[in-house]
Structures are given as structure tokens and as C-alpha cells.
Automatic annotation (TrEMBL), chain B:
InterPro entries: 2Fe-2S_ferredoxin-like_sf, 2Fe-2S_ferredoxin-type, Adrenodoxin-like, Adrenodoxin_Fe-S_BS, Beta-grasp_dom_sf. One of its GO terms (molecular function) is metal ion binding. Belongs to the adrenodoxin/putidaredoxin family. Keywords: 2Fe-2S, Electron transport, Iron, Iron-sulfur, Metal-binding, Transport. Residues 1-84 form the 2Fe-2S ferredoxin-type domain. Its cofactor is [2Fe-2S] cluster. One of its GO terms (biological process) is P450-containing electron transport chain. Pfam families: Fer2. This is 2Fe-2S ferredoxin.
Length: 494, 97
């Protein structure tokens, strides 16, 4: 099946297909040398690309770079602590890392420790899969008041990301939080604020976070969207879970559940939105029990206009919102109605989308926040079809910050297919030898930069699990970089 | 034995990222025979939640980890969704996360 597909693609590209019955690229004598690949980023995008390349090419040698001591990207630092099943995919990523043709380089940062240019000189193929570590801004007054954070910052904080531990968040003096956005990340942060800390204390949540949540005075969380329940970006599993959260009363304005013909059309054409909307409608039945001391309110058709400062001029005290309406058809436009409202709060979490960061020498579309690409091949600019030899992107850096873990599997397939086509055409290297890992090691050693191997990560992993076991947690994440490096780099041969 | 397990035992490349815990949709399979599909018990809410997110969802789609081998299903033919090159097409609707 695979051979047939390759033949079809090859003929579409005007290539002659040799007509052998076995796969073209499994013998190293076909290519004459190892295929040296560097994947930057060890989240799902990076690991699915590595996995597929190793499967596709016997002679691939894949190095995976990761700037943090620990691998796995958002699986480790994004998936919520109360969603352990979603992290199971780490098992197969570990199997990929343990392949003798794969090497993990933790604590190595693109840009700081090694440049893109250096990587492209040392490897036949470079795949950038470093995701999106920044945020979209609202661009409204008050956005930089204290008590205003992006959801990503809050998620990094409770997930023990080394860059998130010092978040200046105060939950002791705040009773109400406003979450802007209604995607799954918005539901994650609302749920972590509302879930009873005793339930969280047996998860892999960071210790500093569960400690802060135990003394949190937050009793009410608003989750605010600019459009209606028909357009909400969250998915059924997450919505079902938060609607059923113990001890939490759900508040929804019934008027927001009215639908227009356009809404019904949208619902009919999307299974995801239909099931989400049905859950919002049924939500009254989730809250029949008494004794709920916390409230989750879904606010629809409200767009933030400004964040309001308290008398001290430093802390946020509320959100100024404009009522909105959907007008016209195919497609509908969101318009302001000229009517305004305020919500009082002491904490604002903006969950309006992540954004990728550019690196030097990398073409970047600043408007979309992605690297312009053609099926994963990096384009020299977004104004040209010319592509950069041997340079690819995968994951959020390629597609934008949407999708689930599994989305990266399909995305990786597309990128690996492009790499395969280019290898077949010897576009990647013109059959030139490159140093691969040896070159990278020499660059790092010149800078006295020590890197964590996968074995070093496994040591760190064991330590976290042992520390967690004592507290009834699956792991106690080691959040300080120095401590993580001390464990990960210990007993390394020079 | 589930169809996901059966695939792995027979070296068929069926992805099972969450290893059968209903936390992903990567083991999505398509029943080629409508009558056999109809014989299956209804998917749970949890399975449907994951099917919502599956690529190339069809009227006879199920998660392989939830289909358990039974005599009545003997002879069933399952197709894997095609890996399509659709990410660079304009108008692509982003999937939620």
C-alpha cells in the first residue's frame, strides 16, 4: 500500500519510480550514508516526526533537541494534572527516544546554544517543532495590570514548568476570577480554580500550586466568550467534565441558548458544536444537588473592552465588556451593540490563543504567528513559493496553535512525506555527508554546554516518581532548573 | 480482545496514543459493512466525545479500542482513515484543543 502511494506521488512530481516491489528507502546503500535529522522540540509534534522518520528510513539518525531538562512539551506542561489518561502517549514517545538511532539532547536551546544556521550545516534535515510559547494579546487598556495573566502562564504555573513557577499570582485575596475565552484551555484553568484542592493533591500538580489553591478564596469563576454557545470552541468531554464538577453550581443565562436559523445551520453541519450546544442546554440538570459553595458562570456575547484598575491603580478589579451580536449570514459578522457591562474580579486569565516565537534566520509570518510552509517545507517568505532546502516545520509552528495531541500524528505524516519526497529527489543534501550528532556535540562542548541524555531524563523521571510516591502523587515535579539539571546531568560521561 | 489490541498483535499500524483509555481518537476505524456496524452496542458518551475529534469521521466510524471481538462480528472488515494532505488548504477549519 505504501509503495503504491509513493509511486503515485512520484509520478505526480514527474519522477521515475524504479518499480521495485520493496520500499525505496530502507537500504542505506540507496542513499549511501545515514540521513542525519535534527528535530527541535520534544513535544508531540517532534516525537511523531521522529517516530515516523525512524520507521520510514532505516538509515535515519534523529537527534531531538529540547530547551528544558524534561521532554514531552505540552504533554508534560500543558495537559491538566487531573487528566492523566491524556499523558499516556508519553509511553510511546519514550519508546521512540530509546531507539538506538534516536538521541535526546535536553537543556539545549535553539538560538542560545546552537543557531539554526549551525544546525542546517550539520544535518541533512532540520525539523522545527518548538510549538508556541507566547500569547495573543487582547490589545486593550489595563492588560498589564497585576492579577492579569495569560492562561498559558497559569497553566505553566500549576504544571510545574520551570519558567512558570514564579508567577506573581495571589489567590488569597481574590473571590472572583474572569476567564476570557471558551476553548478547552479556558475550561482547564476554570476547572483547576474550582476543583477541590484535596482532589488535586493526588495528581502531578506542582506543589506550590496546590498549596496556593488550598488557601484560595476564589468562589466564582466567569468564563466569557465573544460569541454564543453555538460557537463555543470547547469540546464535549471537557465541557461534560466541568459541568459535573463536585460542589460547583453552573449558571447560564437561558436567553443565550436561543438559536437563530443560522445557528441551526451551523449546528447541523458540525457534530462537535452540536454535542457541545446540547450539553449547554442540558446544563441545568447537572446542578440539581444542594450544598454547592462555588459557582461557574458561562457568559456569552460579551467582548472585553478594557481591564479596570482598582484604586491603587496597580491591581485589576474588573472587566469592562461590550455586548455583541452576530449579524448577516455566510459568514456572519460579530458586531458591538453599544451596550456595556462590568464584571468585578480580582484575577483575569486570558485564554485567547497561544503564539509562536520567531528565531533568527527563520522566515516567519508575524500576522499568523507561524512559519510559512508548503506541506511542512519552510518557504523562504510568505510571498514566494521557493522553499528552504532541508528545513521543515511541524506542529503548532506549522499549523498555528490548534488541535489535540493526535492532530500532530496526521501533521507529522504530512511533513515526513515531504521529507521523503525530497530525500528521493536528493533535494535535501545533494548526497553530501554531514556530521550530524558529532557536529552538534562539538558545538556544545566548545561552549561548555552540558546536555541531558534520555538516560538522564529517566533518572530525573525516577526521582520525580519516588518523591511523588511519598505524597500519594504519581510524581512530584522538580520545578527548579538547577535541581533538575543536577539530577539529569549527574554521572554523565564527559 | 479489542480491535486496537488485535491490530498491534498483527503488526498493523493503528495508533493508540492513550492506550485504550478513551482520551484520544487515534485508533479510529471505519466499518466497511453497515450491517455489522449496526450490530455493535451504541458508543458511550465518552467514546462519542472522542469520535467528535477523529479525522475523516464517517457514519460507520468507531474507536478500535472499544470494539471487542465477538462471534457475531466474525468477518468484519475495518478500514483505517486515509492520511490526507489537507493542512495547507485554504479554508481549513482549525480543530479545537
Amino acid at each position: 500500500m505504501k509503495v503504491l502511494a509513493m509511486a503515485r506521488r512520484a509520478s505526480r512530481l514527474g519522477l521515475r519510480f524504479p518499480g521495485r516491489s520493496r520500499d525505496l528507502c530502507t537500504g542505506s546503500d540507496d542513499f549511501g550514508m545515514p540521513l542525519h535529522v535534527c528535530v527541535v522540540g520534544s513535544g508531540p509534534a517532534g516525537f511523531y516526526v521522529a517516530k515516523k522518520l525512524l520507521k520510514r528510513f532505516d538509515f535515519a539518525r534523529v537527534d531531538i533537541l529540547e530547551r528544558l531538562p524534561a521532554p514531552f512539551g505540552l504533554v508534560r506542561s500543558g495537559v491538566a494534572p487531573d487528566h492523566p489518561e491524556t499523558k499516556v502517549v508519553i509511553n510511546q514517545f519514550s519508546r521512540t527516544a530509546e531507539d538506538e538511532r534516536c538521541r535526546f539532547f535536553g537543556n539545549v536551546c535553539l538560538g542560545t546554544d546552537v543557531s539554526l544556521e549551525e544546525l542546517r550545516k550539520n544535518y541533512h534535515v532540520v525539523v522545527l517543532a518548538y510549538g508556541a510559547e507566547s500569547d495573543h494579546r487582547l490589545g486593550i487598556p489595563g492588560e498589564d495590570l497585576e492579577g492579569v495573566f495569560s492562561a498559558r502562564q497559569f497553566v505553566w504555573w500549576y504544571n510545574g514548568h520551570p519558567d512558570g513557577k514564579d508567577l506573581p499570582i495571589n489567590l488569597n485575596d481574590v473571590e472572583t476570577a474572569v476567564v476570557l475565552g471558551q476553548g478547552n484551555v479556558a475550561l482547564d484553568v476554570a476547572r483547576i480554580l474550582l476543583r477541590s484542592p484535596s482532589e488535586l493533591s493526588s495528581t502531578d500538580i506542582a506543589e506550590h500550586a496546590v498549596k496556593a489553591l488550598r488557601t484560595s478564596r476564589i468562589r466564582k469563576v466567569y468564563v466569557v466568550g465573544r460569541r454564543g454557545p453555538v460557537q463555543a470552541a470547547c469540546t464535549a468531554k471537557e465541557l461534560r467534565e466541568i459541568l459535573g464538577l463536585k460542589g460547583v453550581e453552573i449558571v447560564i443565562n437561558e436567553a443565550d441558548l436561543q438559536t437563530t436559523d443560522c445557528d441551526l445551520e451551523e449546528l447541523q453541519s458540525s457534530r462537535i458544536h452540536k454535542r457541545v450546544f446540547d450539553l449547554f442546554c442540558k446544563s441545568a440538570t447537572f446542578t440539581k444537588c444542594a450544598g454547592r459553595d462555588k459557582q461557574l458562570q458561562f457568559v456569552f456575547f460579551r467582548a472585553p473592552v478594557s481591564l479596570l484598575a482598582a484604586e491603587d491603580g496597580i491591581h485589576v478589579r474588573g472587566v469592562h465588556l461590550q455586548k455583541t451580536r452576530l449579524e448577516g449570514s455566510h459568514p456572519r459578522k460579530l458586531v458591538g451593540t453599544g451596550e456595556f457591562e462590568e464584571l468585578d474580579c480580582g484575577l483575569v486569565l486570558k485564554s485567547i490563543g497561544y503564539k509562536s516565537l520567531p528565531v533568527p534566520d527563520l522566515p516567519f509570518d508575524h500576522k499568523k504567528g507561524v512559519v510559512p510552509n508548503y506541506f511542512g517545507r519552510v518557504r523562504s517568505s510568505d510571498a514566494t513559493n521557493e522553499t528552504e532546502r532541508g528545513l521543515y516545520v511541524a506542529g503548532w509552528l506549522k499549523r498555528g496553535p490548534t488541535g489535540i495531541i493526535g492532530t500532530n500524528e496526521v501533521c507529522a505524516q504530512e511533513v515526513v512525506t515531504s521529507i521523503e519526497e525530497d530525500v528521493n529527489r536528493a533535494v535535501v543534501s545533494n548526497l553530501k555527508e554531514v556530521p550530524g550528532s558529532v557536529g552538534l556535540e562539538s558545538i556544545l562542548s566548545e561552549k561548555n554546554k552540558r546536555y541531558i541524555t534520555f538516560e538522564g531524563w529517566e533518572r530525573l523521571n525516577e526521582t520525580e516518581m519516588e518523591k511523588g510516591a511519598v505524597k500519594g502523587k504519581p510524581r512530584e515535579k522538580i520545578v527548579g532548573i538547577d535541581e533538575a539539571l543536577a539530577i539529569g546531568l549527574a554521572k554523565e560521561k564527559e | 480482545m479489542s480491535m486496537l489490541e488485535a491490530a498491534h498483535e498483527n503488526e498493523i499500524e493503528l495508533e493508540g496514543a492513550c492506550e485504550g483509555s478513551l482520551a484520544c481518537s487515534t485508533c479510529h476505524v471505519i466499518f466497511m459493512d453497515e450491517e455489522l456496524y449496526q450490530k455493535l452496542p451504541e458508543p458511550s458518551d465518552e467514546e462519542n466525545d472522542m469520535l467528535d475529534l477523529a479525522f475523516g469521521l464517517t457514519e460507520t466510524s468507531r474507536l478500535g479500542c472499544q470494539i471487542i471481538a465477538k462471534p457475531e462480528l466474525d468477518g468484519m472488515r475495518l478500514a483505517l482513515p486515509p492520511a490526507t494532505r489537507n493542512f495547507a488548504v485554504d479554508g481549513h477549519v482549525p480543530k479545537p484543543h
